[in-house]
Amino acid sequence: MTENGKLEIGIVGGTGYTGVELLRILAQHPKAFVKVITSRSETGLYVWELFANLREAYPDLQYSEPDVEKLKRCDVVFFATPHGVAMKLAPELVENGVKIIDLAADFRINDLRVWENFYGMPHAAPELMEEVVYGLPELNRERIRTARIIANPGCYPTAVQLGFWPLLKHRLVDVDHLVADAKSGVSGAGRGAKVGSLAAETSESFKAYGIHGHRHLPEIEQQLNHMAQTHVNLTFVPHLVPMIRGIEATLYGKLTRSISEDELQHIFEETYAEEPFVDVMPRGSLPDTRMVKGSNMCRMAVYRPQGRDTVVVTCVIDNLVKGASGQAVQNMNLMFDLDETLGLEAPALLP
Ligand SMILES: NC(=O)C1=CN([C@@H]2O[C@H](COP(=O)(O)OP(=O)(O)OC[C@H]3O[C@@H](n4cnc5c(N)ncnc54)[C@H](OP(=O)(O)O)[C@@H]3O)[C@@H](O)[C@H]2O)C=CC1
Ligand SMILES: CC(=O)N[C@@H](CCC(=O)OP(=O)(O)O)C(=O)O
């Protein structure tokens, strides 16, 4: 803690989209002081030299190499890095009393054989897995408060879980035939240069990918299994759409009993009545990604089209905020007994 009671924060991976989004959010957080920010490729540069939008907020903050000795002096360290980085540094940090929030997938999947299969590397910290808490506040709030290590959920998994939760909680859908048809903006692929992210490859074009088994499938199924308290079968098809930020997930389930759209609406509203970052929109609404851009809000609407036995949920988040850095700050607030919404109050940015 600083002398004036602010949390001392480290960010590993401070030049990527989620790292910079953490900086943007923390700039408006009254209890946050960013002490260490790392980048191997930009060591020595001031943050504002790359990101002039942050010049007033961080006039003196300079990128440094990831150094465990420096990170050990923080209260909390966010890993905004590719998969496989956090698990190598976390053991020493946790041993020294530093709390960890990993935005990557190192700690998200309990079955490490499944994790190793999808992520293509051996796990470096299996001994930590038992105490990891999956950081979806709407489901795990009380456990997050006392956690030392948070597995921050994936972007698609956040939208899909929040949309299915009221239906699974009330056993309203056939768990053998769930479908999640999800679309992401290109920032979901990170800031690293890749041909697939070029404007000429992504603009005015729209495609599905990962149909045979995206790495988010085991994460989502693990969590839906917990929610349903049984094994679920999910078909998950992600798509890349020509926009920068945002995820829209259209979810389909076969109803197990007849229920009116009014009742569905009531169940959704009741489930999320106390949630600061989930908005069940009025009947007939069509949430769009623009209405959550830059905000930590998840907006959703529920339908039973033509009164038939399929329920449809449409759910939107900003992949970089509720899908990553905003949710990570929400988790930090809970872990340090702060107001859960601190730093996250800003409404969406239009247009
Ligand atoms: N983009 C999104 O919408 C979402 C991303 N995530 C996850 O969050 C994590 C970060 O994503 P994103 O910000 O998009 O990624 P980027 O590719 O944009 O940024 C990655 C950052 O990590 C640093 N880095 C790369 N390799 C290492 C390493 N071996 N050791 C230390 N630092 C390293 C990079 O800087 P340098 O190389 O200079 O050190 C860079 O700052 C990923 O795991 C991603 O899957 C989760 C939810 C949503
Ligand atoms: C558009 C795009 O490429 N999206 C990424 C997922 C976003 C992400 O970063 O995944 P994590 O949440 O697991 O970290 C993908 O499909 O691999």
From TrEMBL:
Enzymatic reactions: N-acetyl-L-glutamate 5-semialdehyde + phosphate + NADP(+) = N-acetyl-L-glutamyl 5-phosphate + NADPH + H(+)
Family to which the UniProt record says this protein belongs: Belongs to the NAGSA dehydrogenase family. Type 1 subfamily.
Gene Ontology MF terms: N-acetyl-gamma-glutamyl-phosphate reductase activity; NAD binding; NADP+ binding
Identification of the protein by name: N-acetyl-gamma-glutamyl-phosphate reductase
Top EC category: oxidoreductase
Main localization (coarse): cytoplasm
Stored InterPro entries: AGPR (IPR050085), AGPR_AS (IPR023013), AGPR_dimerisation_dom (IPR058924), AGPR_type-1 (IPR000706), NAD(P)-bd_dom_sf (IPR036291), Semialdehyde_DH_NAD-bd (IPR000534)
Summary of the function given for this chain in its UniProt record: Catalyzes the NADPH-dependent reduction of N-acetyl-5-glutamyl phosphate to yield N-acetyl-L-glutamate 5-semialdehyde.
Ligase keyword on record: no
Record keyword NADP present: yes
EC number: 1.2.1.38
Alphabetically ordered keywords of this record: Amino-acid biosynthesis, Arginine biosynthesis, Cytoplasm, NADP, Oxidoreductase
Semialdehyde dehydrogenase NAD-binding domain ranges (all copies): 8-147
Gene Ontology biological-process entries: L-arginine biosynthetic process
Compartments, as annotated in UniProt: Cytoplasm
Any single GO CC term annotated in Swiss-Prot or TrEMBL for this entry: cytoplasm
Pfam families xrefs: Semialdhyde_dh, Semialdhyde_dhC_1
Extent of the signal sequence: none
NCBIfam families: argC
Active site: 155
Pathway connected to this protein: Amino-acid biosynthesis; L-arginine biosynthesis; N(2)-acetyl-L-ornithine from L-glutamate: step 3/4
